[in-house]
Amino acid sequence: MDESVLFSLRLSFQVAIAATVLVVLVGTGMSLILARKSFKGKEILDILLTLPLVLPPTVTGYYLILFMGRNGLLGKYLFHWTGWSIMFTWYAAVLASFIVALPLMIKTTRAAIESVDQNLIKVSYTLGHGELKTFFKVILPLSRKGIIAGAVLSFARAMGEFGATLMVAGNIPGKTNTMPIAIYTSASSGDWSKANMMVVFFTLVSAAFLYIANRLSKRGVW
Amino acid sequence: MIEIRVEKDLGNFSLNLSLSLQKGMTVLFGPSGSGKTLTLHAIAGLVEPDSGMVRVNGVVYFNKKEGVNLPIHRRRVGYVFQDPSLFPHMTVFENIAYGISGLPSGERKRRVNHMIERMRLGGLEKNFPHQISGGQKQRTALARALAASPVLLLLDEPFASLDNPVREKLRLDLLRIGKEDRTPLIFVTHDVEEAFILADEVVVLNNGRVEQTGTKEDIFYRPQTHKVAKFLGVKNIFHGKVTDIRPGEGEMTVWVEKKGFRSSIPYREGAVVGDWVRFCIRPEEIMILKEDRPIKKNLKANIFAGKIVRIVEKGAEHTLFFKQSQDDYDFEISISNLAYRSLRIKEGQMVNVAFKWESIWLIPEV
């Protein structure tokens, strides 16, 4: 198999796994806050976190450039202090996948956390356990299925991420061309045989992953 | 000692009460919506009162003025809900062990096993909540709450959803545990029988206020208000007008117009002719007179002739409904099965009934 195909495949997994790890950590934390706390601006936070789900990925990517670009709101400080910019690195691909997949994680996990019987949480408090311990010993195990489902969805979304990634990470062969981008490149340059191979390969690998994830979540094993 | 003085306004309902409870089993009794659960929540910290204070054994849990509001998990107040609320992902053993902290694992295990034995849960340690019966679940919940060594245990109608025989056994378990552990217990119920069986002390709530506090004998036999009498299902409550007072003999006569009878009742200090009073007589204090026996002197003032209109068998006793007026019935009379058999009473039979004026309770509320 072509070396560049293998690279794209590896990069796609690398980006998707890194993004999923971030999504699970941040998404679970955010879901917990959204599900259990009430504070000013909660609805705005909810909307902001959900927006990437409905915005075209290019718009999300555009925002990321505005924020993280070399002259962006945050990016300019990053560049000023470190001389480094996230743009056009594989980290940018991770960031794009993370932002786009986060709403999926939050939707499923929040619903799972909200469906945990409130009495169980109260009982845990009355048995002397604070919020943190209650989260790890009661809420987390009981919303496990939702979290796994959210992680699987997020991974799938991150694997397939194209638009926002293209905006912030570009299409640099051997550096940021994830599989969806490589497929686009091959197809648009008329390299059909390579495109075909990648599409089939990508489909099989993704299907296999989903199968494993489904089995895991059904068995309820972490 | 548990001291509570709280106010909480919920818009359509407001709680405003002050209680001081000693050790032992206190039953919070009252109709639904009287604020029983809200009171427990205020003690446990599940709800923050608008004002007031909660203090248990000298420790301030809540004090609005001083800005103290101890978080729930630091109050060491056990709480058992009507729903057992066992952690579904943990075994019976793990559930009971959940609240024990700061002990080496051997000691912890020993404590759990001890609770398992006391709550008759032996052999179920490895079962998950969905694999055990309702009664076993509630016993596990009780064991879990007690294993955490609470300074106070709150029980919110914990047996309400169980079958009667199971409920009776659990009540006995609870009484036994209460005696052994000497943990103060506050038990919420709207079941009169349950309140009577369990209580050392009863607090009757109504509409967010304390209606009466006292020993169970105080509450059941000497209700201070008409409402308390009604909530407790006190039978034979009458409303009448004083027609004659005899302070020297400690008696007065009332005319109960609705029922069309005159009765001699205990004299109330300061009562004058024309006052309205409410009084009640317990069903077991009313006697059915046998025709061939002489009538005792202290019964003479309150003898009524009428008909037994209905007889209901209630386990160890029979309830007879006696009627002399136009009303549905006038007195509910309770007699033992033994007495019932020896009297050979039938529905529709004419009888004379009587009671001593001393056994009448005059409800103090004017």
Percent helix among the residues of chain B? 10-25%
Summarize the main sheet of chain B.
Answer: 6 strands, mixed
Given this structure, which CATH class of the largest domain in chain B is correct? Alpha Beta
Most extensive interface: A-B, 17 and 25 residues
Share of residues in strands of chain B? 25-35%
- Structural category of chain B is alpha+beta
Number of domains of chain A: 1
Quickly name the level 1 CATH class of chain A: Mainly Alpha
**Helical proportion of chain A, percent range:** over 70%
CATH architecture of chain A: Orthogonal Bundle
CATH topology of the largest domain in chain B: Rossmann fold
What is the molecular shape of chain A?
Answer: globular
Major sheet summary line of chain A: none
Sketch the topology of chain A as an H/E string, one letter per element. Answer: HHHHHHHHHHH
- The overall pLDDT average of chain B reads 91
- Oligomerization state: heterodimer
| Name given to the CATH homologous superfamily of the largest domain in chain B | P-loop containing nucleotide triphosphate hydrolases
Order of helices and strands of chain B: EEEHEEEEHHHEHEHEEHHEEEEEEEEHEE
Q: In what order do the strands lie side by side in the largest sheet of chain B?
A: 7-8-9-3-10-11
